[in-house]
Design brief:
single chain, 152 residues, four-stranded antiparallel sheet, 5 helices, 8 strands
């Protein structure tokens, strides 16, 4: 039985931070932004592309979503319910489950540290995009230059 991917247009949300987590996603086509909200916009934590997964943290720690997931481009994404993964994970030894839960917790904590550091530096995604668009060469921060080069 083949699972049909869901489609998302650029700007559409797959899920929001704090929402209940009951599935993970496999990206078939497109790019998705993983981001944390801040007062004046958002800070991007990561971008997920084809053949990568997102939403896996909640599978291991059974806590709500740690960030927002928003399509950057047209996307085709396969949603995989946690319930379908549990039969493979449940028989694992308890120490493996504790390791995976610990890794999920560390990843959540790391996402929050990244958000806090970027916010302190005043480098959220919204302001950086404006900075690059308005002043591509003059007055551009070193971080913005690096990010612009990696996007090209």
């Amino acid at each position: 039985m083949a699972i049909e991917p869901s489609t998302y247009r650029a700007g559409e949300s797959l899920f929001s931070e704090g929402a209940d987590a009951s599935s993970l996603y496999l990206v078939k086509v497109g790019r998705i932004s993983i981001r944390k909200s801040v007062d004046d916009g958002f800070i991007e934590i990561a971008q997920i592309g084809p053949n990568q997964i997102l939403g896996e943290i909640g599978f291991f720690d059974r806590r709500p979503r740690s960030a927002d997931a928003v399509a950057l481009t047209y996307c085709e994404v396969v949603e995989i319910p946690y319930d379908s993964l549990s039969p493979m994970f449940d028989p694992a030894p308890d120490y493996i489950k504790r390791i995976m839960t610990g890794l999920a917790t560390r990843l959540r904590d790391a996402d929050e540290v990244i958000r806090e550091l970027k916010e302190r530096l005043g480098e959220n995604e919204v302001s950086m995009r404006k900075e690059v668009e308005e002043e591509p060469d003059e007055g551009e921060s070193e971080t913005a230059k690096i990010l612009r080069q990696t996007e090209e």
